[in-house]
Amino acid sequence: MITSRDHGGGIDAAIATFGGTREGWLDLSTGINPVPYPMPKLPQDAWRALPDQAAFDQLYARARSFWNVPKNAAIIAAPGASAIIAALPHVLLQGTVCIPGPTYNEHGAAFRAAGWTLTSEPGDVLVAVHPNNPDGRRWTTTELDAAITIVDESFCDVAPNASLMSRAEKPGTIILKSFGKFWGMAGLRLGFAVGDPDIIARLGELLGPWQVSGPALAIGAEALADPQWADETRARLDQDAARLDALLKGTGAEVVGGTTLFRLYKVQDAKAAQTHLARRHIWSRVFPYADDWLRLGLPAPERWPELEAAF
Fold first, then answer.
1. Suppose 72 and one of 38, 116, 165, 169 were both cysteines; which one would form an S-S bond, judging by CB atoms 3.0 to 4.6 Å apart?
2. ω into residue 43 within 30 of 0, thus cis?
3. DSSP bridge pairs for 177
4. Within a domain: residue 96?
């Protein structure tokens, strides 16, 4: 049995408590872009045939260009960054791992399940979520000093200049990328690991063949070859994040951090704020370790009036 961990989402549970329909709820509990990449027309073979190497090669070539992947770094795609997070502890020599937090809890859960020892001191492995979820902390290269370093850049595509991708050619380094967040297609399940060729090869052995679906390969390749959409999206997210901050500060909330895909606020009582919004069918994120932290994603452009009315 898989233990349920604290995450965003969970609209069905919210509906069971507060009523409404999925279509009527405004889900701001995740950091997923509310304006997804436009769905391209897919060839029929994407659905009918097993993915072939040419499709992987095209995806990898475009990923290398989009993220400026160093020549000596290897790359592999998987069905979501979470699949890579779960697999990594099994392809590394077991020891101690330091995961500074609070942060995305799947990293700790994956290492713990694989028998690793989690430590607050420097360990054999360092996991750095960059920018961090939920507070948006950014790491510097001088802080990444473990023999094995995993840098989770699932939310870094909103700020490409902050990426630590140039470090991917350093032995023992793995950079994670998530397609679902920035491109707004979390349901597609597509993620990447970039870095040390030995570690990437071991990941490939564990993930097996055809690890990414034909539609995911085609859509990912199309999106990664569209820098204009990416630039326009970053500009919109910048404006909407500032709009959300202004709205919350008007209620007395304090901006704690975040990215332009999610914002973290300090409020008097986060659970009470979540309940207030949920009664208006707006779902937010609270945290078991901070009763005054409220995290909100961004609404789609046409749904701003609902959020503004709720406040």
1. 169
2. no
3. 192
4. yes
